[in-house]
Write a structure and sequence with these properties.
Length: 480
Amino acid sequence: MCIRDRYQRRVHGDNFLNILMKNLIHFCFLALLVSKITCGEKLGELWVKNPENQKIAGSDNIPFNIGNFGHVPEGSQLQGIAYLATPIDACSELTPINIDEEDTSPILVVQRGECKFVTKAHYAQISGFKVLLIVDTEEENVEDLEMINDTTGLGYTISIPSLIVPKKHGSELIELIKSGTTVLLGLHFNWAQSPKPSYQIWLSSCNQLSNDFMKEFADYGSKLEEYTEFEPNYVYWPCQNCDLEHTEEKCIANGKFCAPDPDGDGPIQGWEALIEDLRQYCIHALYGKRYWSYVGSFSDCLKDIKNYNNLEACSDEKINNLGFDKGEISQCVNKTFVNKNNPDYKKTDNSLFSEFKKRYFEKGIVFWPSVIINDMHFRGNMEAKEVAVAICNSFTEQPGICDDPAFKWQYFDDVEGKVSFPTFLLVLVLMMVVFMCCFYYVYKRIVRREMTKEMTVQINAAVSQYFLMNEQNKSFSTQP
């Protein structure tokens, strides 16, 4: 009876531990999921390291957004002393500032307004600063702002990251600097990582900037193809209420999808560019890595368009040179239309562009060419090497190709700073798993030892009883 009770208690204990372990597994899964979501959504962390325990607007962290120009050190962490610009708007050459010689990442704090973002970054950069921090002058959510490059090309000369922070946080930061306190900021740039990163390039085959970027990126894209999951996405705009002449020249699907004429008043029309978009998508779907050879060579088509009667003629030349099957590509293009057998491009709806439309709004694309890596928008100069470096930084374990100097960019030396929330969460989960495994092991050992001890006592008691009864029987049998 005692052995059975002990066994029942052991079973109940095992059931409890099994339930506990299952809940722990569920917790681990949820924690890792939260960690992944957090990594994917947060651009990073900005905080005050000195004075210690200094809060800004009642918070340990300062929200920020990153400009789409300059070089952004994805995954890096740095610290730097914050200096206030004079003039405060940084729209002209700055009054010289004595930067601490030991400060490898000095940060310039300026106010928004009076000139473009890239102008402020330009004056910060030529004054020796490594980071520009812009204080917003409007009460708004800076995470919804888009700090984009201007049209002068100045942004492509910028090599430092530019951040914008909310008015409330920035104003307190400015007052702290004005008080004479040495303000040391810590800055971490988050970047989502995965074993096999996925990335999308948003472009238009009729856009010269897109073509120039693809030509420069083609070699990088080809080398990264087998290690990543890449998909080209093409942009357009709707114009179903436009006049018939406009729709005939620039649109397919009755004005549902349109593009500008690639050569202005030349012979090439917008609808041809949309068909080229579909053609390029199909080439990637059919020929994979060799897609990069095609887009790299097609980029010259718009520049040499006067030598061709239409866009397809230039495309055919590139297809023939690469040995692609034109019929197979045309068949793939036709399959993207609702009427797959004999589509009328001008009138038939297109399912692939409909999918692009859905993704376009989901991803929040506002300009092109644009790149999304592991569901995070690439920030910084849209340059081939910059994007390639960002993709390499998105691997949990980088392939050998990323060791090539062509995939390297020296930003800042990482410094000791805050541990990010996802890292803390992961460490906590691992510690809990180790603890529960040790606890379970010790519990099993204790239960086994107690059972053995209990069984030994019970068996010894039973044997003793047996011998006692046997002796009594013998004594009874020997009585006269």
